[in-house]
Design a protein that fits this description.
A four-stranded antiparallel beta sheet has the order 4-5-3-6, with helices on one face. Mean pLDDT is 84; it is low at 1-12. It is an alpha+beta fold and 156 residues long. 13% of the residues are buried. It folds into two domains: 8-37, no CATH class; 38-139, 2-Layer Sandwich (Alpha-Beta Plaits). The chain has helices at 11-16, 18-25, 56-72, 99-117, 119-124, 143-152; strands spanning 30-31, 36-37, 39-45, 76-83, 86-93, 134-138. The two termini are 13 Å apart. Helix 3 (56-72) packs across helix 4 (99-117).
């Protein structure tokens, strides 16, 4: 297939061979008992008023907290960058995790702990994070390739 690669396996074959298959493709796909998936999101959010408060020990502790919470809610942080006034995350999730819920969990947990441990965050900001965030799904195969693949199904 031009522009992307599709591997044609029946669901039954895939699930039976999931362990072998996962080792062959090295972390690109994951599987559960009933599902094969590769779901990634690019997430960005900012402190309230876009204040530059994510520096020094706050930055270091925020990284620890995000990794802690990610493990707890069964998501994988592939890449994390904390800038003084915003957070960039690239995460991989199972299909049962909604992006909005995941962001709520990460922001809520980190805000509560950081504001307890760093009192200056409480005095400078009414809340640590803004209510908004940016979320984009990220995939290995382009949107154009998927549309073409679906269109070509009737021609088979």
């Amino acid at each position: 297939m031009k522009g992307g690669h599709y591997i044609h396996l029946t669901t039954q074959n895939y699930i039976y061979n999931c362990q072998l298959y996962n080792s062959m493709v090295s972390k690109r796909w994951k599987c559960s008992r009933t599902c094969v998936y590769n779901i990634g999101y690019h997430i960005i959010w900012c402190p309230k008023y876009r204040r530059s408060v994510l520096v020094g020990n706050v930055e270091k502790r925020l990284k620890e907290l995000l990794h802690e919470k990610a493990e707890e809610i069964d998501i994988t942080i592939e890449k994390l960058e904390i800038m003084p006034d915003h957070v960039h995350l690239f995460v991989k999730t199972p299909p049962t995790v909604a992006p909005h819920w995941m962001v709520q969990q990460l922001k809520g947990y980190s805000s509560r702990i950081l504001r307890q441990e760093f009192r200056e965050l409480k005095s400078r900001l009414p809340t640590l994070w803004t209510r908004s965030y940016y979320c984009e799904s990220v995939g290995h195969i382009s949107e154009e390739t998927i549309k073409k693949y679906i269109e070509d199904q009737k021609r088979r």
